[in-house]
Amino acid sequence: MKKVVTFGELMLRLSPEGYLRFLQSEKYVASFGGDGSGRVQR
Questions:
Q1: Which of the residues in the chain have pLDDT under 50?
Q2: Among residues 1, 5, 20, 22, which is most buried (max CB within 10 A)?
């Protein structure tokens, strides 16, 4: 089994399409970012 070590934090944002509210939408756009999104060691 391989170990994965990450540093920092990773944030996932789910946004509804168009101008709908979160509970009204059936589809969401996922985007991620944060301090540790580019630093992963395997």
A1: none
A2: 20
As for how many domains the chain has, the answer is 1
Distance CA 14, CA 33 (A): 12
Using the structure block, give the residue that is written with the tokens 């580019």.
Answer: 38
Token pair recorded at residue 31: 């985007």
Output the CA–CA distances (angstroms, integers) from residue 5 to 8, 10, 12, 35, in the order listed: 10, 13, 19, 14
- E-strand stretches of 1-42: 5-6, 11-16, 28-33, 40-41
Residues linked to residue 11 through DSSP beta bridges, in sequence order: 33
